[in-house]
Each structure stands twice: as structure tokens, then as C-alpha cells.
Amino acid sequence: MPLRGKSFFFTAGVLAATLLLGVWLHSTRTLQAPADQRVHLRLAALYTSQAMENYQDLVDDFNRRNPDLLVELQGIPGSYYDKLLVMFAGRTAPDVMWMGKGMAQFASRDAFLDVEDEFRIPPGHYYESVLDCYRFNGRLMGFPLGADFAVIVYNLDLFQQAGLPPPAPDWTLEEFRQAAKRLTVREGGQVRQWGFYGEIDPGVFGAEVLSPDMSEERIDRPEWRSYLDFHLKLIFEDGSMPSRLEIPGAGILTRRQAFYRGQAAMISDGFHFQTMREEISDFRWDIAPVPMGARRACASSTQGFAVSRHTPHPAEAVRLLRYLVAPESQRRMGGVLVPSHRESARQAIEDMPGPPHNRQVILDSMETLNPFPRHPKINELQQALAETTRLVLTRQQSPEAGLRECARQFREILGRTHP
Amino acid sequence: MRSRALGIAALFLLPNLLGFLAFTLFPVVASFALSFCRWDPVAEPVSAIEPVGLRNYVDLVGFHSRTDSGGQTSWVANTPRFWESLYNTVFMMLAIPFNMAASLLLAVLLNRKMRGMAIFRSAFFLPSITAGVGTMLLWMWMFNKDMGSINQVLAWVGIQGPDWLQSYFWAKPALMLMASWAGIGGVNMILYLAGLQQIPRELHEAAALDGAGRWQQLRHVTVPMLLPVTFFIFIISIISGLEGGFDAPYVMTGGSFGTTTVSLYLYRQGFEFFRMGYASAVAWVLFLIVFLLTMINWRLAEKRVEY
């Protein structure tokens, strides 16, 4: 029934009053802000209890040192990039934000402030391979705190039991494969101990995802075939690696859990040595470089911070960024990733309690990082590649058909100008 | 007096109305408008949204001709992934008739007067109210190829179970099985229970006097009398089947092995690939499918369902 007469005016009055109340509340909040003379900055980070403690310490210290600024740390648990996306869409993005694997997707869309001129980087002081992950069109669009990467973590006791020497620094793919075979133990037709559980980076086989100018796919190539064939041999020919890949639902044991339980003699894993030291007490373990193939390469990811292009306080936000990624701050974060600052990395690794003992592997690996190309459609490309790998390595698609289909998808994604 | 009552009613409705306008109507209208545009929310402000006409829809549901090396021309979908996700969604909806039949059967069994029936009813309802992700993780254990309880049970009868969640053939049935477990004893069962209790006892008594057995009573009395409830459940199941199916593939298979549903596809396009206009078009095509199916169902029901 339509509203008429008094009821219409009454309803309209209530509506207007509600709106006025909202406006008044908003304005009082806005008016209160200048009473506090400090510039307020919002810093967003992916919420994990350990990281938040570290970040909060950094923020408290920064606030003490900069009385004209007040930084509020905002921990975002789960779906971090979804929330950032929504904030960017609403132009309410935090002034400074933590970035991990989403860096390429956001930075390539010009989401961040160009900070190239804000950092005077003395040559050789930082790992260029890590800095490159934050460079777009030759300009720094944020700054990396450090990197995480995959090395081979091995059970030294199981190596000795199998009569194998520890892996040599220059071991080859074939030596690795033979070791994995020797380390595999079967009982009653079932594998009791896997030789290896993980993945060797495609870069080791010389495989590349895109051409250097990122305009063409490089998927349907012999190098990718070698990469798939090698893993297929480990899984189905040698039986030294489980067929379940680490994807949701893949299996009960993650590779790390299998390693802790002595059910995997070698795994490929990242910089989680502190957790390993806590979890492993009944066997000796160490790390080795990823075996040598066509070249040295290891899967990697970086973490760092970037300043929103829409921040109303760019100068102050850059000041915060410089503090967050300064060598001193990097050393504080040294327990969870390898600092991008060489000297800080060296110190962090030196100060780290053992195991691992073969720490040179960590520093050497920093020179051979093989990140995914920083293409604006990185998520789509990664998804297409991951789908192919899963289907081929579970023998539901042949390597030829898988790579052909993946290459087709890549061409479709790269060729689509809209949007 | 009447206008005063209306005014008060309007006042009570106002918060909901405002919420509806802001959080339902506006997003619906905005997404419809956006489906004819190109917008990357990170790269461009709202003011830079670019109208592209029907291009998103053509990309989504259109076909183009392709001539192969042998000179043969064929029609190819512009976006095979969308059709694949629609196929996956419809495939997983094949469980709906089975689930409905099982819910009805369960409701008939639980519609008896006996001690402890409330406990049974609660027990069967429990899966539908347990936390989604938690139960999914449990099912992931159960589906494990080597150590999962399902394959262990199959092994007792000499069957080697498949790698449920990593097989293109078995991943969809596995998700359907889990959805059935959660759905059979859920709201559908409660609706059937309520429907059963509305059937006049005299009808069953008359049928019994005429010599109808339990099965005949079920077939000729219970099922026809429950048609309105069945129709309602069917419509709701179709709608939720088309719109749902996001969380289980997202958590359990990551959308691999043929388990990407339309809703997961939509989420990826919008929130992972930043194609907001295209994702909106997916949402509207999905709405259109739901709308058409519901209309067809209503038309069919008009002839068969009596209230």
C-alpha cells in the first residue's frame, strides 16, 4: 500500500533524520582528528601470530622515533589479497602494505608508489635477484624485506643407513634421482619411506614460462617436457616419490610432516628451519642445494612492503617504508625469511642456531632464485600451469597433450586485450 | 489512526529497507551495469570504467569458427572454461533427485512415535549445521587414497579405491557424496517431516482399510500429498545447486580435476584475475539460467502440483 499524507512525511522525516545523524557522526569524527597533530598512517599485513608480533614491535619502535606520525597496524587474517582488492576498489587502501605473492599482480597495475628515487642502493649491497621481484619497468614499486626459497632438506641418518654420502654441493639431477631411489624403502609391497617428496624447480631443466618481454609463452618446449618426465620417472618408474602433490586434498601428510616422521628422506622446502628444529629431535638433518641441471634455480617467493599510490601522505608513508625494510628491521625478521640486504642476510644466517649446518646453501640459493614472471595476469598463468602439472603428474593427461593445452591457454590469456 | 500505524510500521521497516537498498539492490543494479563494462578495480578508479557493450557476454557464451590445418571448420566456444564449469556444476546437481528421495525416506522413518526419536532427528540434522570447512577437512582425510577410511572399507570387500580427490573421474562424485551426507538429513528432511505431519491421518487409515500396504500408502498417499513440499525443495535445490558449490571445491581440490563450478569460476575471474566486468557478466548469465529453470519448473508444477 503506498504511503500517503502524514505517514509519508513521517517516514521521510525519519529517513532525513537518519541521514543527518550519519553526516553528523562522520563530521564529528573528522573534526576530532586534527586535535591529534600527528599524521595517521595505516599499515596492513597478513595476519600470522609470529609475524604480527614482529611487525608490532617494529611499529611501536617507529612510533617512538617519529612523534609526528602514528602508525596503526592492521592485521588481515586470510584472503589478504581479496581484502586489499576491495580496499583498492573503494580507494581506501592502507597507506603502506605488506606484499607477498600478490606483488606482481598489484604492482603491474600501478597500485603502488614508485619509490625508485627514494632508495639509494649502493651496488652489491642487496641481492639483485630479490630486488628485481619488486622492479616493474625498471622502477622499484616497493621494497623487499627478504626471500623464501626451496632447498633440499635431507635426513642425514637415513642417508647413512642407505650407505650414501651427504649430497655434494654440485650434485646432478641424475645423482639426486639415484639417491632418491636408494632411500626408498618398501615393506610388503607398500612404501614405508619415500626417497623424495616435493618438486624440483622447472628452471633447473632450463624451462622458462614466458619470453623475456613476456609477450610469448615458452611452455610447449622440450625443457618443460624434461621437467615433467623427470617427476614422472620419480613417481611411476622409480616409485621414489608419492604421486599426491601438495594441493588441497592431496593427502594426509604434507611433505614436511612426512619428513618429520621419517617417512620422506628428502623434501624440497623453504626457510622454515626454526620450526624444523622444534619438531625434529630424533634424527640429524641438514640442507643441500637443489640439484644441478641445465642451470641452477630454486623456487622462490619474496615478502616486502609497498606504498599505496592513493595515500594522502606519500612522504610519511615512504618514511615508514624505509624504516620497515631497513637492514636493521630485516635482521629482526631474519627468522622467517632471508633478508634482501646481503650483510643482514649473512649475519642472520651466521647467528642462526644449527641445524642446518650447511648454511652456505642458503646464501648461494639467494643468487639463483627463479620467480614466476611478473606479468599482470600472473594468477591466470599460474593457475593454468598448475592445472597442467597436476593432470600430467597424476597421469590423467600425457605430457605432450598437457603442454599443448597449457600453451594454448597461455596464448589465449596473453592475447586477450580485454580487459 | 491508520496512517499513524502505517508510519510506525514504516519506521520499523526502515532499517531493513535501508540495508536492502544499500547492500542488495544497489550491488545488484551495479553488477548489472558493470557486466557491460570493463573494469580492473586496482588499476582504474570507478570513473575510468569503460563501457564495452555486449563484449563480456560474447566472450562468455559466444562461439567462433575455427579452421584446422585440414581445412575443416568447426565452432569453438570463446571461453571453454566457462562451459566446463557449467558442466561441472550441472553434473554435481545430478545428486539432487537422490538426495531428495533419501531425505523423504529418512523423514518417513523419523516420523514415528517412539522413545528417543528426538535424538535420532537431531543426529541426522547435525551434519547440516556443523562447520563447513571443518567437515571438509575430515572428508579429505576420509577420501585419502592410502589411509582414508572409505578406501579401507572398500579394501575389506576386495575393491581398490580410487584417488578420490585427485582423479578427473572421481573428484566430482566425491564432492557429491560429501554434499549428500550433509544435505540428506538437513533442512530438506525437516521440511518433509513437517509436510508428513500435515497429511491427515484419515487418508492413511482409509487407504489401509482399502487394503493398501505400506509401500502403496507411501506411493499413492504420502508422495502425492507431499508434492508441494517436494516442488519447493526441488526449486530451492536447483537454485542452490547452481549458485553454490564454491566452498567444497575451493577447500578440497582447489578447483582442479574438473571440479571448478560456476561460482568458483566467477570468484576467480573477479577476485583473483581482477576482471570485474566479466565476473559480473558470469553472475548475470548464472542468474538467467536459474531464472529460466525456475520458470520452467513453475510451469510444469502448475499442471502437476495441487496446493
Topology:
The complex is a heterodimer of chains A (419) and B (307).
Chain A: H1 5-32, E1 39-46, H2 49-65, E2 69-76, H3 80-89, E3 96-99, H4 103-107, H5 128-132, E4 135-136, E5 139-140, E6 143-149, E7 151-155, H6 156-161, H7 173-183, E8 185-187, E9 190-197, H8 222-237, H9 255-260, E10 264-269, H10 273-279, E11 285-288, E12 300-307, H11 314-324, H12 327-332, E13 338-339, H13 342-351, H14 360-365, H15 378-393, H16 399-415
Parallel strand pairs in A: 1-2, 1-3, 9-10
Antiparallel strand pairs in A: 3-12, 4-5, 6-12, 6-13, 7-10, 7-11, 8-9
Chain B: H1 2-34, E1 37-38, E2 50-51, H2 55-61, E3 63-67, E4 73-77, H3 80-92, H4 95-109, H5 117-129, H6 132-142, H7 149-156, H8 171-184, H9 187-198, H10 201-209, H11 214-225, H12 227-243, H13 247-252, H14 262-272, H15 276-304
Antiparallel strand pairs in B: 1-2, 3-4
Radius of gyration of chain B: 24 Å
Largest sheet of chain A: 6 strands, mixed
Counted beta strands of chain B: 4
Biggest β-sheet of chain B, characterized? 2 strands, antiparallel
Unreliable parts of chain A: 246-250
Form type of chain A: globular
Q: What are the secondary-structure elements of chain B, in order, as H or E?
A: HEEHEEHHHHHHHHHHHHH
> Can you identify the CATH superfamily of the largest domain in chain A?
Periplasmic binding protein-like II
CATH fold node name of the largest domain in chain B:
MetI-like fold
Structural domain count of chain B: 2
CATH architecture of the largest domain in chain B: Orthogonal Bundle
CATH homologous superfamily name of the largest domain in chain B? MetI-like
- According to CATH, what is the class of the largest domain in chain B? Mainly Alpha
Q: Helical proportion of chain A?
A: 40-55%
Percent of residues of chain B in helical segments?
55-70%
Number of domains of chain A: 2
DSSP E strands of chain A, number: 13
User: Major sheet of chain A: order of its strands?
Assistant: 2-1-3-12-6-13
CATH class of the largest domain in chain A: Alpha Beta
Number of helices of chain A: 16
